[in-house]
Specification:
Blueprint: H1 2-18, E1 35-38, E2 41-45, H2 58-71, H3 79-82, H4 86-99, E3 103-107, H5 110-121, E4 127-131, H6 136-145, E5 148-152, H7 157-166, E6 173-178, H8 190-200, E7 203-207, H9 222-225, E8 234-238, E9 248-252, H10 254-263, H11 265-269, H12 275-290, H13 293-312, E10 323-329, H14 331-343, E11 346-347, E12 350-351, E13 361-366, H15 373-389
Helix pairs in contact: 2-12, 4-12, 5-6, 7-8, 13-15
Bound molecules: pyridoxal-5'-phosphate.
The site of pyridoxal-5'-phosphate has 13 residues, from helix 5.
Length: 393
C-alpha cells in the first residue's frame, strides 16, 4: 500500500512535534520589510536577512519593473546554451568593480554558488579543510566534490594548522570558511586563515553570504573588512540577503571565473537568474556605491539593539555583527519565547537543533536598516516583558 511507504515520514514528523522541534512556517501577507503582516496583524520583523531594507526599496522595485518592460521575465535557458543576456554581464561587471576583484560570475542563489565552486576546484584525491560550523551549502558542495573533508575547530587557526600538518598525502587543497557565521554572528579570522593558506600554498575560499552588503567599506564584504584584496582566491556571496533580491556570486581572479563558466555545474545545467532579479541587483549596487547611509544605519541599529538586550540582562553570545542571538538553551523555551514575542507584535524566530547544537536554542534577532528607533524600543520592551514572564531575566 502506498501509505506504508511513507508512514516513516509520519513517524518522523510526530517525533519532531513531540520534541518541540517541528518548524511551522509563518505566511507573510505583505512585502518583506521592517514590519510585515501576518494573519492580518502588523508585526516588527526581526527574522529576515534583509539587512539594508532593499527587499522592498522603491528604487529596486522600479528597476525590476523597468527591466521586465525592456527584457521580459526569464532568461529562457542556461546561459552556456541559449546565450547570455547583456544584463547578466552588466551585473557581473558591476559586482567585480564593487568588490575590487578581476571578475565575477552569478548563480541562481548563494547555495548553488557553493555547489558550483567547490566541485569545480577540488575532486577525488583532494582535500578540503572546512570550519566545523560551515553552512550547509558548503557541506553539500564539499560532498558533491568527492574530495576528503577535514574539519577544523570553529574559527581556530591553530587547529587548522594542526589539520594541515597531519595530512601528508593530497592532490589539490582548499581551505573554506563562512565569513560571518549566521547563527552566532561571529566573524572568521580571515586575515590569520589567509596567512596559513599562503604559508602552505593552499587555495582559500570564503562564503561571505552574511558579510555581503554588511561588512567592509560600504558593504564590500569580509575581504574588504580585513583589507585582503587579491589574497583570497574565491569569494562566494549571495544577492538574497543584504541585496534584498535573489542570486549568488563568485568573485575572484579572472582565471577562476573563466573556469567556473566551463565547469560550474549549476551554471551549465540550470537557468540563470531572472531578468527582474538581475536588474534589481544592479540597482542595489548603484545604491551601495552612491552612499553608505543604509550600511551605517544597519550597524547603528544593531548597536542599539545589542546594548539594549545586554542592559536588560540577556546573553547575546559572541556576535560581532548585526546578527544577534539571544541565548536561551532549551528548544521548548525558545519556541515559547518566540510565541510570546509574536503575541506582543514582534516576529523573531526560535532557532534550535539541528540548525544549532542541542542545548543552544536561541531567538535569533536579525537587525535591519528598515527599522527606526521606535521600532527598536518597542522590540526591546517586548523582550523585557517576555523575558520577565518566562523567568529568563
Ligand atoms: C553562509 C551561507 N552561504 C550560503 C547561503 C545560501 O544563500 P542563498 O539564500 O542565496 O541560497 C546562506 C543562506 O542561508 C548562508 O548563510
Amino acid at each position: 500500500m502506498s501509505t506504508s511507504k511513507t508512514s516513516w515520514i509520519e513517524n518522523e514528523i510526530s517525533a519532531l512535534k513531540e520534541a518541540g522541534l517541528f518548524n511551522t512556517i509563518r505566511t507573510i501577507e505583505s512585502p518583506m520589510d521592517g514590519r510585515v503582516t501576518i494573519n492580518g496583524r502588523s508585526l516588527l520583523n526581526f527574522c529576515a536577512n534583509n539587512y539594508l531594507g532593499l527587499a522592498n526599496h522603491p528604487q529596486i522595485r522600479a528597476a525590476a519593473q523597468q527591466a521586465i518592460t525592456e527584457y521580459g521575465v526569464g532568461p529562457g535557458a542556461v546561459r552556456s546554451i541559449a546565450g547570455t543576456m547583456s544584463l547578466h554581464i552588466a551585473l557581473e561587471q558591476r559586482l567585480a568593480a564593487f568588490k575590487q576583484v578581476e571578475a565575477c560570475i552569478t548563480f541562481q542563489s548563494g547555495f548553488t554558488a557553493n555547489l558550483a565552486a567547490i566541485p569545480a576546484l577540488v575532486g577525488k584525491g583532494d582535500i578540503i579543510f572546512s570550519d566545523e560550523l560551515n553552512h550547509a551549502s558548503i557541506i553539500d558542495g564539499s560532498r558533491l566534490s568527492r574530495a576528503q573533508v577535514v574539519r577544523y575547530a570553529h574559527n581556530n587557526v591553530n587547529d587548522l594548522r594542526r589539520a594541515i600538518s597531519e595530512t601528508t598525502e593530497y592532490g589539490r587543497r582548499l581551505i573554506v570558511t563562512d565569513g560571518v557565521f549566521s547563527m552566532d554572528g561571529d566573524i572568521a579570522p580571515l586575515d590569520k586563515i589567509c596567512e596559513v593558506a599562503e604559508e602552505h600554498d593552499i587555495m582559500l575560499m570564503v562564503d561571505d553570504a552574511h558579510g555581503e552588503g554588511v561588512l567592509g567599506r560600504g558593504g564590500r564584504g569580509i575581504v574588504d573588512h580585513f583589507g585582503l584584496h587579491g589574497r583570497v582566491d574565491i569569494e562566494v556571496g549571495t544577492l538574497s540577503k543584504a541585496f534584498g533580491v535573489m542570486g549568488g556570486l563568485v568573485a575572484g581572479k579572472q582565471i577562476i571565473i573563466d573556469w567556473l563558466r566551463q565547469r560550474g555545474r549549476p551554471f551549465l545545467f540550470s537557468s540563470a537568474m531572472t531578468v527582474p532579479d538581475v536588474a534589481a541587483c544592479i540597482q542595489a549596487v548603484d545604491l551601495l556605491e552612491e552612499s553608505t547611509t543604509l550600511v551605517d544605519k544597519l550597524w547603528q541599529n544593531a548597536e542599539i539593539f545589542k546594548t539594549g538586550l545586554k542592559a536588560l540582562g540577556f546573553n547575546t553570545g559572541e556576535t560581532e555583527t548585526p546578527i544577534v542571538p539571544v541565548m536561551l538553551g532549551d528548544a521548548p523555551l525558545a519556541q515559547e519565547f518566540s510565541r510570546h514575542l509574536f503575541e506582543k507584535g514582534v516576529f523573531a524566530m526560535a532557532i534550535s537543533y539541528p540548525t544549532v547544537p542541542r542545548g543552544k536554542a536561541r531567538i535569533r534577532v536579525m537587525n535591519s536598516a528598515a527599522h527606526d528607533k521606535n521600532d527598536l524600543e518597542e522590540a526591546l520592551e517586548a523582550f523585557r516583558e517576555v523575558g520577565t514572564q518566562l523567568g529568563v531575566l
